[in-house]
Write a structure and sequence with these properties.
The protein has 121 residues and is of the alpha+beta class. It has a single domain, classed as Arc Repressor Mutant, subunit A. It has five helices and five strands, in the order H-H-E-E-E-H-E-E-H-H. It has helices spanning 14-20, 24-35, 55-67, 86-92, 96-108; strands spanning 40-41, 47-48, 51-52, 71-76, 79-84.
Length: 121
């Protein structure tokens, strides 16, 4: 099993973030992870909105998000648990992620899920 690589916060770029979030499925996955109260497994996203996502495609989406530095993935047994790196990215690029997610919500006509209480991600 290959080890998971996560870029350091200094290696995360705006271009990488924009590329990773240019796909509508990835931006919805990221938005759901950002609004979640706990880590989510990849299998929680086999259906995104009304689309069934094959496991192999889903793996590629999570890899793109991880390599862009947007999420942190951790193996737990047979599951892969994923969390966002919102706080780290907010410190490096203040306001970038909320602006991207809000713009996507406006474009798609689908409101963002509410953030958990006390969470300003």
């Amino acid at each position: 099993m290959r080890p998971l690589t996560h870029p350091s916060i200094d290696d995360i770029t705006v271009e990488g973030i924009l590329h990773a979030l240019s796909d509508p499925v990835r931006v919805r996955i990221y938005t759901q992870l950002a609004c979640a109260e706990r880590a989510n497994s990849c299998s929680a996203f086999l259906q995104v909105e009304d689309r069934c996502i094959p496991k192999s495609t889903l793996s590629q989406h999570f890899r793109a998000l991880r390599e862009a530095g947007l999420i942190r993935s951790e193996r737990r047994g047979v599951e892969m648990l994923n969390t966002t790196r919102c706080d780290e990215i907010q410190q490096r690029f203040p306001g970038l992620l909320p602006a991207i997610m809000q713009a996507h919500a406006i474009q798609s006509g689908k409101p963002l899920p509410p953030a958990p209480e006390g969470d300003d991600k």
